[in-house]
Amino acid sequence: MLKDATAIVGIGQTAFGKGLPDTELSLACQAISRALDDAGIAPAEVDGLASFTMEPNREVDVARNVGLGDITYFSQVGYGGGAGCGVVLQAAMAVATGQCRVAVAWRARKRASKASRPWAQVPQRLSDHWQWSRPWGLLRPVDEVAMLTRRYIHEYGATRDHLANVALAFRKHANRNPAATMFDKPMTREDYFAARMISEPLCLFDNCLETDGALAVVLVAADRAVDLPHPPVYVHAGAQGLPPQHQTMINYFNDNPLRGPSWTAAGQLWRNADFGPADVKVAQIYDAFSPLVPLSLEGYGFCERGEGAAFTENSALEWPDGRLPTNTAGGGMSEAYVHGFNLVLEGARQMRGTSTSQVDGADTCLVTSGEGVPTSALLLRS
Amino acid sequence: MANVSKKKTGFLLPDVESEDGAAFWAGTARGELLVQACGSCGTWRFPPRPMCPHCRSLEVRWEPASGRATIWSYVVPHPPLLPAYAELAPYNVIVVALDEDPTIRMVGNLLEHPEGAINDLDASTIVIGAPVRVVFQVVEDVTMPQWTRA
To answer: How close does chain B come to A202, measured CA to CA in Å?
Structure first.
């Protein structure tokens, strides 16, 4: 069984920014190196690696730079922002099943360069599934998510004020986190509504940042974790999710497009957990776009279907007094967008008690990856 | 989309000979909106693909849709966009649900007139649930299904 068998014992990250001078490989190696130092584990002990299929750095190059030992397990998870928690889950499963003893999971990216944006690189003639959406000008992830958002607004009476609740909560948390890109940039509701539209009904502040940076975590078995410098952050449960008839990003072609991959991952996650959504005191929810948050709140069972937008009312997502403080480091919208991997590290900090917006008594944390793509999620506990 | 033109437009266009899509695009070139149907159980599916997820048959046939549909959702993209699209922004993109089976949905643009451009309609007048009908426009060597109000 996976439950509490492994723990995150080291976390490391680089600075976040636009146009960082370091290469992606250098960023990856710096983050991994810091995570190993944080864990008090020597590079030569690392024998497991897990990464995104979109990760630009190969295992061989990371291992040759950081000075890793004999690697006996390495795997990757696909679907971009849906992968983050799944990558950590792969590492946890590999340790729990004895395929390796010290696993590193990471993400490094120079997103801020235009060439790194996948939708800017599609070939002129489309022969894959994009031929059914892009020719009509549905070009970017924001357009694809805006389409679901408009339908969600139509079905459930959500408003742009609800989306603003999401953006403003995460910005407030970033304003408390010196590592966040938006640390010194407060935002008001007036600022939100004054922003230019990107794909109506979504405006600039419904979008995540474009970030260069890297983050890494180190996992070991629970019995070793207790001997290491930091309090163990146990992987209580993990799940991936790919629902029937799902199409990644352009999920318009099935009976129930607003019931996304979160629902599938949630079913598996809660089935294997000793606690439920009501027991979760803090969450890190994938926020490439603000509407993914209400959709995920519904999927993971914090409210009923259609209630995710209303859930954000009364500052519910805000530290310290909200019903569910969410993205307490600022998330993808205001800390950094490193394909959601920064959410994993903030989840770990909450369990260690070291977040800049630490939730009192938080002993469990939900971390999720992308909604609208085949996804994954983790339940962490202290 | 622009009017009939064989020259490069800068739009992202389908490979009309792709394995899964060729029959669909051959249909639009004849002015037909074809939907892939299972050759065994008859269930419609879109986008087209090799196997029927209901009965796993590999047999397919292509059946004409009436071209009547309703608007399921819509967006209005603004720049930054690829240049050919940025020139037309803001424009609308809609998803329609076919009358014969509302779970068969297609992406398109809502046009003021059958010969119109994707930015010639006031997007604030688009209503989810409104009836539309298919029209066809030629862009380079591709015939694109588009939609006007029914």
So the answer is: 9
Give domain status of residue B135, yes or no.
yes
Q: Which residues of A touch B53 (CB under 8 A)?
A: 245
Question: Torsion angle of alpha carbons A374, A378, A379, A382, nearest 10°?
Answer: -170
Residues of chain B in contact with residue A255, where contact means CB-CB under 8 angstroms, are 103
Look up the pTM and report it.
Answer: 0.96
* Interstrand relation of B68-77 and B44-45 (parallel, antiparallel or unpaired): unpaired
Q: What is the DSSP letter of A340?
A: T
Catalytic residue among A79, A152, A286, A300: A286
B98, B24: one domain? no
Whether residues B117 and B86 fall in one domain: yes
Pick from A131, A139, A148: CB nearest B18: A131
User: Do B59 and B95 lie in a common domain?
Assistant: no
Of A125, A146, A200, the CB nearest to B15: A125
> What are B12-63's pLDDT values in tens digits?
999 999 999 999 999 999 999 999 999 999 999 999 999 999 999 999 999 9
Return all residues near A194 (Cβ < 8 A) that are at least 6 apart. Answer: none
Tell me, yes or no, whether B128 lies in a domain.
yes
Instruction: Residue B104: list chain A partners with CB under 8 A.
Output: 253
Contact status of A122 with chain B (Cβ, < 8 Å): yes
Contacts of B47 in chain A (CB under 8 A): 129, 131-132, 247, 253
The per-residue pLDDT for range A95-133, each reduced to its tens digit, is 999 999 999 999 999 976 665 565 566 557 999 999 999
For A3, A123, A364, the CA distances from A278, given in Å and listed in that order, are 19, 46, 11
Is A156 near chain B, with CB under 8 Å?
no
Known catalytic membership, residue A73:
no
Q: Phi first, then psi: what are they for A352, rounded to 5°?
A: -80, -20
Cβ within 8 Å, pair A137-B72: no
- CB distance A150–B46 less than 8 Å? no
For residue A227, the enclosing domain spans 6-114+209-381
Round to whole Å and give the CA distance between A299 and A137: 29
Cβ count within 10 A of residue B57? 15
- Whether B4 maps to a domain, the answer reads no
Burial of A145 (0-12, 13-18, 19+ CB in 10 A): buried
* Global ipTM: 0.96
